[in-house]
Amino acid sequence: MLKNAGGLAENTVPADNQLKGNPAVYYDGDGGLRVLIAGNSITRHAPAPELGWDGDWGMAASAKEKDYVHILMGMIRGKFGAARFCVAQLAEAEQRYREIDAVLAKFGELKAFRADIAIVRLSENARIEKDGGREAFRAAYEKTLGFLSGGGAAALVVGTGFWRNPDADAAIREAAGRFGAAVAELGDLGERDENKAVGLFAHGGVAAHPGDTGMRAIAERLFGKILSARNARRA
Known about the structure:
Elements: E1 25-28, E2 33-39, H1 68-80, E3 83-89, H2 91-95, H3 100-104, H4 108-112, E4 117-120, H5 133-148, E5 155-159, H6 166-179, E6 182-184, H7 204-207, H8 212-234
Parallel strand pairs: 2-3, 2-4, 4-5, 5-6
Antiparallel strand pairs: 1-3
């Protein structure tokens, strides 16, 4: 049953301090394909007792292995073999898109990682101002894609918002076109309650995040675009 309880407005989880001082970047695996995953609270959110959230993985999956990042890790290793992952919590890049140079300057290790594949999921925390906001976000997003992909050296896959954010989503598609990035459309997932953690958390913003079903759907759509991007590189 299709339900939409407010879309983007449901994201009432603060974008600030989503890791509460924890390192914003972690690595998984040794050798093989180098895969960078950059996102926000859907990618990783540290424990936040005040929100009723005790995990340190993608909010609001029931366990680490059930968030989209770890499902995707399994899919990629199953297809390509050994892989080393670099996972970055970059919610600040959405929130401070007009200061993107200062934000990216904190994450030199992401550029140094020299990813073979870069997966970028950033939009849900972007509050686009009416006067020039969309263009400013698009420019910031392009800088972010260039930074994370080594100037386009990596195969790029981007996702639109789990909660539709029309201005940000449009800017993402435009920026993706410049880099030849594959785009996974995700906005319809956030319109159905079965993809959320509804009823599992008292805090409405946490409950509006993707639950296990939504996380798997995100991973599957991103993985499909990864295969397309890799095939396009070989063509």
